[in-house]
């Protein structure tokens, strides 16, 4: 379930994915919601491009540390590559 930043006040959130496209982010949100994973999404900048590097905006997905492995498993099942 999608949570706001206050949900993680007492614990350190773990970055599990950076979605580069809206469609990709919405699909991951749906997968996490169906699996009952609590997550937060925040728009932030990342550096992209191989030849012409530039700053781009992506959807950064965070989960609680105790949910990180379950979130990564859901991502793998849905064809996403995990960050760690």
How many runs of DSSP E, i.e. beta strands? 3
Structural class: alpha+beta
Give the total of domains. Answer: 1
CATH class: Alpha Beta
Strand content: 25-35%
Count up the helices.
2
Residue-averaged pLDDT, rounded?
90
List segments where confidence is low: pLDDT < 50 over at least 5 consecutive residues: none
The major beta sheet can be summarized as:
3 strands, antiparallel
Q: How many angstroms does the end-to-end distance come to?
A: 22 Å
Which second-level CATH architecture applies? Answer: 2-Layer Sandwich
Strand order of the largest sheet: 1-3-2
Order of helices and strands: EHEEH
Shape: globular
Describe this structure in words.
By secondary structure, the protein is of the alpha+beta class. It has one domain (5-77): Alpha-Beta Plaits, CATH 3.30.70. Helices cover 29% and strands 33% of the residues. The chain is built from 2 helices and 3 strands; from the N terminus they run βαββα. A 3-stranded antiparallel β-sheet has the order 1-3-2. A hairpin with a 5-residue loop joins strand 2 and strand 3 (54-64). It is globular, with a radius of gyration of 13 Å.
Name its key features.
Alpha-Beta Plaits; alpha+beta; 3 strands; 3-stranded antiparallel beta sheet; globular; 84 residues; 2 helices
Annotate the secondary structure layout.
Blueprint: E1 13-19, H1 22-35, E2 39-48, E3 54-64, H2 68-77
Antiparallel strand pairs: 1-3, 2-3
Q: Concise description?
A:
This protein has 84 residues and is an alpha+beta fold. Helices cover 29% and strands 33% of the residues.
């Amino acid at each position: 379930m999608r949570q706001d930043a206050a949900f993680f006040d007492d614990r350190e959130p773990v970055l599990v994915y950076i979605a580069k496209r809206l469609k990709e982010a919405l699909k991951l949100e749906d997968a996490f919601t169906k699996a009952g994973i609590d997550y937060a999404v925040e728009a932030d900048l990342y550096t992209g491009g191989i030849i012409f590097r530039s700053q781009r905006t992506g959807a950064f997905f965070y989960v609680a540390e105790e949910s990180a492995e379950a979130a990564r498993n859901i991502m793998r099942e849905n064809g996403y590559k995990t960050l760690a």
